Amino acid sequence: MTNPEDMGPGYYWVKFCGEWTVGEYDPGSHYPWTLVGSDEIYMEWDMEEIGERVERREREEREGMKKPDLNKPAFALFPEMKQKIEQGLCSWCGKPVGEFRDELSQHEYGISGFCQQCQDETFEEVKDEGEG
Fold first, then answer.
1. What is the pTM for the complete model shown?
2. Which residue of 25, 53, 85, 132 is 20 to 30 Å from 8, comparing CA positions?
């Protein structure tokens, strides 16, 4: 758990209402927490747990990494997948997306919203089925 006294402004993983999501922290504000995708503001004690800083989200904003098109029919059929992507989580497993091995994996994330581990597991299964 991250100590709020050691935190600078930025994005952090926070556990709120039993779910992990990304919160933006502004230590100079009276209500320093805003959950990503929400306009609601919170205090430190509203967070059940504060995790690691989300460097990836800040890097994405700088580099303009392609995110999945949330208007695709698949995301209309599976709105829970869309919600996970909006929170910076893998659309399949719901864990933090993390880093990608290469540009092809980043491109696949822009299509499916799958983290590297889910991509590896999915495409390994497809590869194994093709070898049978």
1. 0.52
2. 85
Q: Which two tokens stand for residue 124?
A: 């390994």
The pLDDT tens digits for 106-132 are 889 988 999 999 999 998 866 666 665
Sign of the C-alpha dihedral, residues 9, 11, 15, 21? positive
| Interacting residues of 14 by C-beta distance below 8 A, sequence separation 6+ | 20, 21, 22, 23, 33, 35, 47, 48, 49, 50, 51
Nearest to 62 by CA among 4, 10, 122, 1: 10
DSSP line for 23-59: EEE-TTSSS-EEETT---EE-GGG-SEEEEE-HHHHH
Q: For residues 61 and 58, what is the distance between their CA atoms, to the nearest angstrom? A: 5
What's the CA gap between 98 and 24, in Å, rounded? Answer: 17
Query: In degrees rounded to 5, what are phi and psi of residue 19?
Result: -120, 140
For the chain, the residue count is 132
